[in-house]
Amino acid sequence: MFKANDQPELFTFQNQLLDNEQQRILEKTPEKAFYNIVFCNINEDDYKVLFSDKGSRPNAAVNVLVSALILKERKCWSYDELMASMMFDLRTKVALGLSSIDQKPFSRATLFNFQNRLSAHELESGVNLLEKTFDNLTAGQLEKLKIKTNIQRSDSTLISSNTRKYGRVQLLIEVLLRMSRLFDGADKDALAEQVRPYGEPGSQKYVYQLKPSDLDHELARLGRLYHTVYQRVKTRYPHTEEFRVFERAYNEHFTVVEGEAVAKGKKELDSGMLQSPDDQDATYREKGDQKSKGYTINATETANPENSIQLLTDIAVNKNNVDDSRIIEARVDKIVEKTPDLDELHTDGGYGSEAVDKKMEEHGIALVTTAVRGRESKVEKTITRSAENEREYTVECPRQEVKSAPTAKKNRAVFDTGTCAVCPLSNECAIFKNNGRYYFTEEDHLRNRRNGNINKIPEERRKIRPNVEATIKEFKNKTQAGKLKVRGQFKASLFAFAMGISINFGRIYRLIVSKGEKYGDFLASFRAFVLQILTLMEPAQISALKIKKQTNFQISYLSVLYRGLKM
Predict the structure, then answer these.
(1) Which residues of 368-389 are buried (b: 16+ CB within 10 A; e: fewer)?
(2) pLDDT value, residue 18
(3) So what's the pLDDT on residue 548?
(4) 87: closest CA among 78, 77, 98, 76?
(5) At residue 19, what are phi and psi to the nearest 5 degrees?
(6) DSSP label at 483?
(7) Torsions phi, psi for 273 (to 5 deg)
(8) pTM for the predicted model, two decimal places
(9) Is residue 403 within 8 Å of 393, Cβ to Cβ?
């Protein structure tokens, strides 16, 4: 049964154990700021769908569970470290809104069950509730801080899953061995002799003993064994996880030809195939000199130079074989929904595509790209579409401007070769080398317009995209050399959204500190004043006060004070 954690205690260990000086110091800590900025603004009702609506044992406090997950990633804690800090660190207790020094709001099992509920809900509804919390918190922060969202920037990074690195043969052996552990007596008797050579040393030691020249022979041997096992057990274990993984590996690595399983060639394999039996979502990608088996995190943040700070507005986690252009194409509708005034988005050249250009045109967003890929000529040209006729274009180079005419599949612009001949750029001009003819498509027009967007904005805004790379490093710095502590796309997304909330909080906290605001001092003195009022009241009067959760903690105390004085 869902029960909101909306009854803050009047008397906490902070009031009972700490003197005024200690309380003033505590009010200035990041943990106290986390409580006010994050904890108190988590909408617990969003998580009501995870719990039964029947009368039953109430849930652990949702805002405590969610805040704990955020702190875990912010502090790079293991689950053990999180539990120990929650029990023994007073600052962590403050961040999690715990009122008594001996309070333990949840167990490890409760936290794991909560994550499982989040995962099941996303599978069923497509909604990641931690993403919803990130969006809600960010919306409130953007509004309160008056952050302009019309200019934003986006970038992505590869992030590896916490799995062992498998070669092809070792992966096939490991999957086979895990499948064999399900065999009952009859299957064991029939297949034991064929599986035993792999099972006794294990997949890693077995492969270690092989020579490179042995690999093709081993693949052929595994193909025969996979085919035999599959034919025997396909109707016996179809609903088990081990069989689903085995069947996937069988289909991805082998082709059945005349009743025999033949290993596929390297060119027939793709980056989306199984990388590890421990993480079925992970994919493979090479980006520059970096090889990764896992996911990408794409982050979008505000970038208007007039803002006091920049905040993350959108985070997306995808399989790492999804191109950046496809990611931003899929996300732009949601980004616009959250920040409808967006009209300028800065990315690197990898985000550009015809589909993205059309999506940006639909929303009236200028996509400003740097490090543009696929430039076709050293001589800059501009293609402008007519407002009256969508098939009519004007093509302009440094010396000429001509109108195009449609052909069967493209558009053609014909330049005066006499003018081209005396142009100092003629040796580098592809148009001149093609006798003044230039053929282009609508895709070329959109790409040309995108490439020219950077020249249409003030010079001081042309180099704001690289700053988002520092944001990306904030995600990577919380991993072990780019490798997560978890497996699976859902848990990778929990990490990403928790980190997004943490990064925004960190920037707001540093802004508060840099401005030297006396917020903490005010709260400490105000609470002391409220407690003085409460000491004048009868116990029955105090117990009759019911404090409802407000947007931040000091408002709750105002409510107490007002009702107390009336009584």
Answers:
(1) bbeeeeeeeeebebbbebeeee
(2) 66
(3) 41
(4) 98
(5) -80, 180
(6) B
(7) -75, 165
(8) 0.84
(9) yes
Strand pairing report for 366-370 and 344-348: parallel
| Triad 421, 426, 428: Cα angle to 5° | 165
Helix (H) or strand (E) segment spanning residue 153: strand 151-160
- Report whether 443 contacts 393 (CB < 8 A): no
Q: Centre a 10 Å sphere on the Cβ of residue 416 and count the other Cβ atoms it contains.
A: 11
Q: What is the pLDDT of residue 562?
A: 45
d(CA 315, CA 134): 9
What is the per-residue pLDDT for 376?
53
DSSP labels, 280-328: SS-EEEEETTEEEEEEEEEEEEE--TTSSS--EEEEEEEETTS-HHHHH
Q: Parallel, antiparallel, or unpaired for β 151-160 and 344-348?
A: parallel
Q: Give me the residue label for tokens 């401005």.
A: 515
Residue 344's H or E segment, with its range, is strand 344-348
Q: Where are the alpha helices (DSSP H) in 237-353?
A: 241-253, 324-338
Q: What gap in Å lies between CA 89 and CA 189, rounded to an integer? A: 56
- Cβ–Cβ < 8 Å for 90, 34: no
CA distance 371 to 356: 17
Residue type at position 406: P
For residue 563, the surrounding DSSP H or E stretch is helix 553-566
Give the Cα separation of 437 and 434 in Å (integer): 6
Amino acid at 78: S
What element of type H or E holds 306? none
Three-class DSSP category at 500: helix
| CA-CA-CA-CA dihedral for 181, 184, 185, 186, to nearest 10 | -110
Question: Is residue 85 within 8 Å of 92, Cβ to Cβ?
Answer: yes
pLDDT value of position 559: 47
- Helix/strand/coil for 355: helix
Residues of the chain with pLDDT under 50: 10, 518-522, 547-567
- 463 three-class SS: coil
Three-state DSSP class for residue 293: strand
What three-state secondary structure class fits 191?
helix
Q: Output the CA torsion sign for 102, 105, 110, 116.
A: negative
Contacts of 517 by beta carbon, 8 Å cutoff, 6+ apart: none
Two tokens, residue 176: 């086979």
301, 468 contact by CB (below 8 A): yes
**Which residues lie closer than 8 Å to 98 by C-beta, 6 or more apart?**
64, 86, 105
* Secondary structure letter of residue 5 according to DSSP: -
Task: Measure the CA angle with vertex 141, ends 155 and 347; round to 5°.
Answer: 15
Three-class DSSP category at 41: helix
> Residue 59: what residue type?
N
Whole-angstrom Cα distance, residue 450 to residue 383? 11
Half-sphere exposure of 477 toward its Cβ, with a 13 Å CA cutoff?
Answer: 11
SS3 state of residue 203: helix
How many angstroms separate the CA atoms of 279 and 486, rounded? 9
- What phi and psi values does residue 486 have, to the nearest 5 degrees? -125, 175
Number of neighbouring beta carbons within 10 Å of residue 403: 12
Residue 357 burial (CB count, 10 A): 21
Cβ atoms of 342 and 367 closer than 8 Å = no
Give the residue from 514, 393, 373, 524 showing the smallest Cα distance to 450: 373
Q: What residue segments make up the domains of the chain, in order of their start?
A: 13-127+518-561, 168-268
